[in-house]
C-alpha cells in the first residue's frame, strides 16, 4: 500500500496495474493516427481518386470538383453541381472532400466508441475502465468536451452520406452506361455495407428508432420497429468491430482506386 502511494507521488499517471495495460490504448492511438492521417492527406491531395466508374470514398460524394484538377480528379460531369464556384474561399483547397465528406470525420470523431478509444489512447482520464489507482479525477465530457453531444446531429449527416455512398457504389456497376462489374465495384459495395453496419449500430440511431418507446407491442407498426431495433442492437454489440473494419476498408478502397487510376495495377472487370 505504501509503495502505491509512493508511485502516485512520483508519477501522476501511475496506476496499480502491473501488466502492460497501456499496450492496447497505444496500439489504438497508432492505428487512429495512421488511418485518420492518411485520409486527411488524401483529402488535401485528391490525385487519382477517380477511374470511371470508381470513386474514392475519401472524396465521395463529390458536390463540386476542380475544373482543372490534378490527374485522376473527379470529372466535372460526375460532380453534383459541376466545378467549384467562383465564391469558393481561396484558402480552402478545391477538393471534393471539403464540401460534404468532411462531415464523416465529425460523425466518426464524436462516435461513442471512438471517444472512449481516443480518450484511453491519448492517456486522458481515465486511461481504461479496468485500470485502478489513477491519481487524476475523472471529469466526464464537460467543458470543451460538451461538443461531443453533436453526435446525435452528426448522425443525420452520416445517414445522408451513407445513402450517397450506396448511390456511388451502385453507379459503379455502369461503365460508360454499360452494365458490368469489376473489383472496384465490389470494393465500393463492401465499403458501403461496412459503413452501414457501423452507422446502423450507432447508439444515437438505436435511440432514434426506438429509444423513447416503453412498449414494443403497443400501437401500429411496432413489430416492424422492434425488428429494426433488434437488428440495430445486434450491430451495436459489434460497434467497435465495424468501426475499425469500416475505417480500414475506406482506406483500402481509396488505395485501390489510386492504384487503378494511376495505372499501377489493372482492374479486373467485365467491361474490358
Ligand atoms: Fe458510434 Fe454513433 S455511437 S456511430
Tell me briefly what this model is.
The protein has 272 residues and is mainly α.
Task: Give a description of the structure.
The structure is a single chain. The chain is an all-alpha fold. It has one domain. It has nine helices and four strands; from the N terminus they run ααββαααββαααα. The strands form two sheets. A two-stranded antiparallel ribbon has the order 1-2. A two-stranded antiparallel ribbon has the order 3-4. Helix 3 crosses helix 5 (151-171), helix 5 runs antiparallel to helix 6 and helix 6 (183-199) runs antiparallel to helix 9 (239-261). The protein is globular, with a radius of gyration of 22 Å. It starts with a helix and ends in an 11-residue tail after the last helix. The relative contact order is 0.14. Mean pLDDT is 87; it is low at 1-10. The structure holds FE2/S2 (inorganic) cluster. FE2/S2 (inorganic) cluster binds at residues 111-113, 151, 202-204, 239.
Helix content percent band: 40-55%
Mean pLDDT: 87
Category by helix and strand content:
mainly alpha
Order of helices and strands: HHEEHHHEEHHHH
Total of DSSP H or I helical runs spanning 4+ residues:
9
How many angstroms separate the termini?
72 Å
Q: Which term fits the overall shape?
A: globular
Tell me the domain tally.
Answer: 1
| Tally of strands | 4
Strand order of the largest sheet: 1-2
Low-confidence stretches: 1-10
Task: Name the ligand types.
Answer: FE2/S2 (inorganic) cluster
Q: Could you describe the largest sheet, including whether it forms a barrel?
A: 2 strands, antiparallel
Tell me what portion of residues adopts beta-strand conformation: under 5%
Radius of gyration (Å): 22 Å
Amino acid at each position: 500500500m505504501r509503495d502505491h502511494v509512493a508511485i502516485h507521488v512520483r508519477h501522476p499517471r501511475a496506476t496499480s496495474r502491473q501488466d502492460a495495460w497501456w499496450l492496447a490504448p497505444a496500439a489504438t492511438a497508432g492505428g487512429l493516427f495512421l488511418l485518420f492521417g492518411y485520409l486527411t492527406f488524401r483529402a488535401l491531395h485528391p490525385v487519382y481518386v477517380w477511374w470511371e466508374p470508381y470513386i474514392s470514398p475519401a472524396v465521395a460524394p463529390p458536390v463540386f470538383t476542380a475544373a482543372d484538377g490534378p490527374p485522376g480528379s473527379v470529372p466535372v460531369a460526375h460532380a453534383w453541381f459541376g466545378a467549384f464556384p467562383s465564391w469558393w474561399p481561396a484558402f480552402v483547397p478545391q477538393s471534393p472532400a471539403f464540401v460534404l465528406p468532411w462531415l464523416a470525420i465529425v460523425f466518426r470523431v464524436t462516435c461513442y466508441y471512438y471517444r472512449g478509444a481516443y480518450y484511453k489512447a491519448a492517456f486522458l482520464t481515465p486511461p481504461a475502465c479496468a485500470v485502478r489507482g489513477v491519481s487524476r479525477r475523472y471529469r466526464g465530457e464537460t467543458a470543451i468536451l460538451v461538443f461531443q453531444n453533436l453526435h446525435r446531429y452528426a448522425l443525420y449527416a452520416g445517414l445522408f452520406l451513407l445513402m450517397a455512398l450506396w448511390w456511388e457504389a451502385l453507379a459503379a456497376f455502369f461503365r460508360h452506361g454499360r452494365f458490368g462489374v469489376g473489383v472496384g465495384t465490389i470494393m465500393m459495395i463492401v465499403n458501403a455495407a461496412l459503413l452501414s453496419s457501423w452507422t446502423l449500430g450507432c447508439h444515437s440511431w438505436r435511440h432514434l428508432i426506438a429509444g423513447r418507446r416503453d412498449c414494443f407491442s403497443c400501437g401500429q407498426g411496432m413489430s416492424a420497429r422492434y425488428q429494426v431495433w433488434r437488428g440495430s442492437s445486434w450491430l451495436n454489440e459489434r460497434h467497435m468491430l465495424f468501426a475499425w473494419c469500416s475505417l480500414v476498408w475506406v482506406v483500402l478502397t481509396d488505395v485501390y482506386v489510386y492504384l487503378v487510376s494511376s495505372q499501377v495495377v489493372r482492374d479486373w472487370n467485365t467491361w474490358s
